[in-house]
Design a protein that fits this description.
Layout lengths: L6 E5 L4 E5 L5 E5 H6 L4 H4 L17 E7 L3 E6 L7 E3 H9 L1 H15 L8
Antiparallel strand pairs: 1-2, 2-3, 4-5, 5-6
Length: 120
């Protein structure tokens, strides 16, 4: 079982969540990165290959986070999205694989001709 983080800090200025674990691992996860990799069904789809590409999330902000039991946290984004449960294990996975996951996301955005910029 993955242990709970020892520290979770919201950096509203740089729009990132910093998360630290007892083993010394520390990750700096941008809000946009967390939003587009939300573990919710709305984003992940209901099976492999059914993921829904999240576009226009570059300026997304976090309104708050709340713990869910001792295994996860819920992040409330200012675009109304709050249904993803970010388990400690999933957050660690995002932190460890951040570069690959981000490159993959940018590649998918490029392929679909979508933009990270919000449409106003």
């Amino acid at each position: 079982m993955i242990e709970q983080p020892t520290e979770i800090t919201l950096h509203q200025q740089s729009r990132a969540i910093e998360i630290a674990f007892a083993d010394g691992a520390r990750y700096h996860l941008p809000y946009e990165f967390l939003r587009v990799h939300s573990p919710s069904a709305e984003v992940r789809g209901h099976g492999p290959g059914l993921e829904v590409l999240q576009v226009g999330k570059q300026d997304v902000n976090v309104l708050g986070v709340e713990p869910v039991g001792s295994y996860a946290m819920k992040i409330e984004f200012d675009d109304g999205h709050d249904s993803g449960l970010y388990t400690w294990e999933y957050l660690r996975h995002l932190g460890k694989n951040q570069n690959e996951l981000w490159q993959e996301y940018l590649h998918r955005m490029q392929e679909s001709g979508a933009s990270r910029q919000p449409h106003h």
